Amino acid sequence: MANEENSILQMHDLHPAPGAKKDRIRVGRGEGSKGKTSGRGDKGTKKRYQVRMGFEGGQLPLYMRLPKLRGFKSPFKKEFQVVNIATLAELFPKGGEVSVEDLIAKGAVRSGYPVKVLGDGEATTAFTLKGVKASASAKAKIEAAGGSISED
Questions:
Q1: How many other CB atoms are found less than 10 A from the CB of residue 127?
Q2: What is the rounded distance in angstroms from the CA atom of residue 152 to the CA atom of residue 148?
Q3: Which is it for strands 96-99 and 127-130: parallel, antiparallel or unpaired?
Q4: Ranges for the Large ribosomal subunit protein uL15/eL18 domain (predicted)?
């Protein structure tokens, strides 16, 4: 029975493995035990007290060297994608009805932005443009060729 009692593990028998438990290093407690600079290195402003972010030691900081942003960007500005008449004549040589979806399908413009037709090039065939805006010169050239433009 005595052997059986010795084999039961008791709370007071538990202890960590050798070398598993280390004492923490108490810095700044005299020169004999990690004293003096206490892990801060030698000299320098950052060792004496904390310095704010972006401080360049008295040199004119980067955020003051760069120019200020002037003006503003309107959140309501419409960014138009432009298509010239020459491009229309190239993509649709037979003319006919052309919508924004047709231009997207041909890869002339991306979806999600309004489209504007500009007057660079010559309208050889009649285009019926739907859902696009047009410059005055583009409108004149398309109407001269027998076409029309509707913005809705």
A1: 25
A2: 13
A3: parallel
A4: 82-149
